[in-house]
Write a structure and sequence with these properties.
Length: about 250
């Protein structure tokens, strides 16, 4: 059963509920599925698609932002309260629509992990613009001695001609690009399950000054890169001896 937020009496009653909990000493409010509030009047039933309800008439209705602004303003007029809004969507554009200084402090999708189309790597890319963490290979960086380092990158299943190592402007770039034709996909095999990741990748590292790549070797799925740092003698730290000749410095008065 939906509350008809288009009715001013309903909105005022919600304010009274908020006021009651303010008197109880709460620090904030969480408002559930706020993009499903009925602000345009009770409409027709949603259509059904493949046995499931398709939200068409009861979601992101007109006048919803204005209604939420009034609700948030009513709460904030009584003090510094933290407002959280649950959104029935995993779309970052929809989520950001309800978060602002005039709206919610934080928004989230409570059931985001159970969404059929949920993909944490895709969501990470949409929110940050960066390569999903899950597509990057794991690596270890070891300091062998004062001048030598060993970078080990886990690349199981990759061949040496699919990997590329280059240094540009003091940065080390390691990339993997699958060959256009893969015998395993052209053989006509029928896959029951295929979970081995085949995504291309690129790792980047900032090299210390005077560092150079001495050797790269691929062995048992581990790409080992030897890094040598040769610091010129003129730039190495030096201890300066302090001479004490017992001289007395006189000051003029």
């Amino acid at each position: 059963m939906d509350l008809n937020w288009a009715n001013p009496a309903v909105e005022q009653e919600i304010y009274r509920v908020v006021d009651f909990w303010v008197t109880q000493g709460v620090d904030g409010f969480r408002f559930d599925v706020i993009n499903f509030l009925t602000t345009d009047g009770i409409g027709p039933d949603n259509p059904e698609e493949n046995g499931e309800q398709r939200h068409e008439f009861d979601i992101n209705q007109p006048r919803l932002p204005e209604t939420l602004q009034r609700l948030c303003a009513h709460v904030r007029a009584q003090g510094d309260y933290f407002l959280i809004g649950e959104i029935g969507s995993e779309d970052p554009d929809v989520l950001s629509r309800y978060q602002s200084p005039q709206l919610m402090d934080v928004v989230f999708n409570f059931n985001i992990g159970s969404q059929k189309t949920f993909d944490v790597s895709r969501l990470f890319s949409q929110l940050t613009g960066d390569t999903p963490v899950g597509t990057l290979p794991a690596y270890d960086l070891q300091k062998v001695d004062d001048s030598n380092f060993l970078l080990s990158v886990s690349v199981p299943g990759w061949k040496d001609d699919e990997l590329e190592i280059e240094t540009v402007g003091g940065n080390l770039h390691i990339s993997g690009k699958r060959q256009e034709t893969d015998a395993s996909t052209d053989s006509g095999e029928r896959w029951i399950y295929k979970g081995i990741r085949r995504a291309n990748f690129q790792l980047s590292f900032s090299l210390p000054e005077h560092a150079q790549i001495n050797q790269a070797q691929l062995d048992s799925g581990i790409l080992k890169i030897a890094i040598h740092q040769e610091i010129p003698e003129s730039e190495k730290p030096r201890k300066i001896a302090i001479e004490n000749q017992g001289r007395v410095i006189e000051h003029k008065v």
